[in-house]
Amino acid sequence: METTPIWLVDSAWISFAFLCGFLARLVKLPPLIGFLAAGFILNGLEIRQGLEALEEMADLGVTLLLFTIGLKLDIKSLLRKEIWLGTSIHMLLTTIVLTGFLLLLALTPLISGLNATTALLIGFALSFSSTVFAIKILEDRGELNSLHGVTSVGILVMQDIIAVVFLTLSAGKIPSVWALALPLLFFIRPLFFWFLDRTGHGELFALLGLFLALVAGATSFEFVGLKADLGALIMGIMLGTHPKARELSYTLLGFKNLFLVAFFLSIGLSGLPDGKTLIIACLLAVFLIFKGGLFFVLMSRFNFRSRTAMFTSFALGNYSEFGLIVAAVGVKNGWIESQWLVLIAISLTISFVIGAPLNSSVYALYARFKEKLKRCESTTRHAADQPIKIEADGLIFGMGRIGTNAYDTAQQEYERVIVGLDNNQETVDRHCQAGRNVIFGDAADIDFWDKINPNDIKLISLCMTNHQANITAVEQLQNCGYNGFITATARYDEEERELKEMGVDSVYNVFANIGSAYVKYTREQYLEKTQEIL
Predict the structure, then answer these.
(1) Total tally of structural domains belonging to the chain
(2) The predicted structure's pLDDT at residue 1
């Protein structure tokens, strides 16, 4: 039988993925929706050659994703009650409800021969939320370090831990005795740090990142009978305290994004549904309302504001790629038929298609239903979600390198009260220890602007690295009628134009001004040095 040339298959994958992703972007949807569509189109055209290689790339993408999460994860956050208890309650209730719904469907012509064990397994599979989808959405909006971002990631990590337990039990075997040696990785962490310090910033640094994630982390755990993804996550957590951890995450970003394209393509290539499968998948999509709503109720009961609860529920209100893994294990062990694998793949895709535009519109939706949602808030406020009181002449949002330098310069040269804000609590703590007046705050938080009177502040500087976060902050300032001076940073010409068109008074193009800033710095150093000589 003649097969399609591999170069033609590769060309088809790349072409369809790019074109569908680009079309999705044109209609203001996340490109991942286009990647999913490309997978189904390729499946329909029967271009499936090399699917195993694509699935290998997809696995690498998920592994790198968990490694980069570990680099940024505060392990103490998993001990918060809303993380471990919220995850447990949500998964238990979701599994029970979905199991009951599937058993009711078994009484109709849509499903035949469904027993309680199969229904329970499918309900359990659909109780997980997608790590890939949620992280991608939060990452694109620059909200991984926000309160709802940290909470969402914590819940996803707890779900991953539950996944590891399930996979271990379903395999019918216990980990190798060599698993007891894994704690030794912590003792050789100084060796990993030594490599990080001495590999520079180029291709060797990128290769070291792949080694740490895929070999030292994933392969070592796989070798002793544990889940490889868990190894990558733990390795990331171990290295997260190193000064180059953030740079390592950024260096691996391109690899991770490319491999995740393969993940979304592989979902579409996993199978094409028949009529009954589509109907059941659409009915399961209705339960996304229950799933997201339950997250909202739980987060509200844990004393979060309605905004934090809503943003968390939108990020997690979907079905997970882990459902495919559960189904595959079930098929392999003879617990369920292979048709359920296609059903879960379609349900997962539909949840992404619904969730992507909803997450893109979450700010507008919250603004519209803000007052009604606030009625769900508890009288007691979560310690991390307290109101903010600010008295300052100027605010600087985003205390990275640019924001920090701006803060220090303003403090030295102007007799004004300057306050820095950042949505990363660790960054806030670090600056406070250094003596800077920095507080936790999210410029994209609509309620943040309700807590202060912006017109009492003469200057607001937006130094956040994420362009969309700066855009959102400008929109919130305009919505509350701010009439002071707004300055912002941009990295590209189109970002600079967009900010100026929105009415930002001053936009500093970081990349375009690197040369002039260098010349100015050199001139100052030269004059200082020649003055010393004279």
Answers:
(1) 3
(2) 39
